[in-house]
Design brief:
Largest sheet: 7 strands, mixed
Helix content: 40-55%
Shape: globular
CATH architecture of the largest domain: 3-Layer(aba) Sandwich
Radius of gyration: 21 Å
Number of helices: 15
Number of strands: 11
């Protein structure tokens, strides 16, 4: 539909969101949404522009050519609130996944629906259950609404221990499953997730985060959404589609479940560049398989190198993996940064592991060279010059709100 022909009346879903906006605003403001870049960079001041950044699970390939072209072409219309582009993306996602329109809501990334799901279904009476190590963002949301955080160790094969999760929290409001898991890059089977759904407490939801599913060979649980189960499924264009900076994602689920999280978060409005880039990406049938192959090839080469040199890591099917530093990981992270290679953070349950993002082949070659020096002792962490006032202020801003319960 051309801009001049657009009907300026709000669609029904937007009207509901708009009417609930005032009530939701105070709740949303009380909940600071924690994102991957906030977690990745909370304790690191700005890195040099020429640094190797393999610390935030970004896709170094960026948006596809068709996505870039679509984003550039829509910029002249940037002065308009182009609501119909949201409808176009919802329709494209629904058709791609075989869903009804009301089973799809789009967001500026997947962080908002993750946090709003926790806020809507967890409470001081209903716990939030997650894997350990696992993606931490939902724990901050749980803390913000006063919900108990229950962390359950992964199994020996690095999958979510769904039976232990059920046993640990009979009062649960939200079971969070990230598959492939962030940070380990390991899959939890469809059958295990289905078991969790069928045996969870009444009134709770299973929040399945498939941010990294396109990198892996595992099965999605989209079929559970189609079956009307108590499942909210998250996807994002930030990873394999390379759109982390454009901000676009989606939540899939039963309409009544999506209504609850939408009412909590209010009316989401996405940048028009993100909307058209996402729609263009979905139309590119070669994009996902090509990028999956590229990632798997580079990841395999890195794993082969690690094997040859005797370094321990967790086998991954994603664009990240956990690497054993054989010492307190902070020292290794700092020593790598000294060589202008910035690797990922530490999970307290695994203090001698650091998360590594799979970058380009040249980036991973530089990672390997730097890692050899760190592990041989040729490069160690050292105490540098005191941080500037600007750096201290930046760190304070990043760390503000990132204090969670043990």
């Amino acid at each position: 539909m051309a801009p001049q022909d657009h009907d300026f009346s709000l669609p029904s879903a937007s009207r509901r969101s708009f009417l609930s906006l005032s009530a939701a605003a105070s709740a949303a403001l009380a909940l600071r949404i924690v994102t991957e870049p906030m977690l990745a960079h909370a304790r690191v001041h700005n890195a040099p522009k020429d640094a190797i950044r393999i610390d935030a699970n970004e896709n170094p390939l960026g948006p596809s050519a068709s996505a870039r072209e679509a984003a550039a072409a829509i910029v002249p219309q940037g002065g308009r609130y182009s609501d119909w582009l949201t409808d176009d993306l919802v329709k494209a996602l629904a058709e791609t996944e075989g869903l009804k329109l009301e089973q799809v809501h789009v967001y500026p990334g997947s962080s908002e629906p993750l946090h709003h799901t926790v806020a809507a279904f967890a409470s001081p009476q209903r716990s939030y259950v997650t894997a350990d190590p696992g993606y931490e963002a939902g724990m901050f949301a749980a803390n913000a609404v006063g919900a108990k955080v229950v962390k359950v160790p992964l199994t020996k094969s690095y999958t979510h221990d769904v039976k232990a999760m059920l046993a640990a929290a009979p009062d649960a409001g939200v079971f969070y499953v990230c598959s492939p898991n962030n940070p380990t890059g390991t899959l939890t089977s469809h059958s295990d997730i289905e078991y969790l759904v069928e045996n969870k407490p009444k009134g709770s939801v299973v929040l399945v985060d498939e941010a990294y599913i396109h990198f892996a060979d595992g099965d999605s649980v989209m079929d559970l959404v189609k079956a009307g189960k108590d499942v909210i499924l998250l996807r994002t264009f930030s990873k394999i589609y390379g759109m982390a900076g454009l901000r676009c994602g989606a939540a899939f689920g039963r309409p009544d479940l999506l209504e609850k999280i939408e009412n909590y978060g209010g009316w989401n409005f996405l940048p028009i560049t993100a909307l058209v880039a996402a729609s263009a990406s979905l139309k590119d049938a070669r994009l996902v398989p090509e990028r999956k192959h590229i990632n798997a090839s580079i990841r395999g080469q890195v794993f082969a190198w690690l094997d040859r040199n005797g370094y321990s890591y967790v086998p991954s099917q994603s664009n990240c993996f956990m690497l054993d530093t054989k010492r307190p990981a902070k020292a290794a992270i700092d020593a790598m940064a000294k060589q202008n290679v910035f690797i990922g953070r530490i999970w307290p349950v695994w203090p001698t592991y650091a998360r590594i993002t799979v970058g380009t082949a040249p980036e991973m070659e530089q990672f390997q060279a730097a890692w050899q020096k760190v592990m041989s002792g040729a490069v160690t962490a050292s105490v540098g010059a005191p941080p500037t006032s600007g750096e201290l202020a930046s760190r304070k801003r990043n760390l503000n709100g990132l204090v969670m319960r043990a």
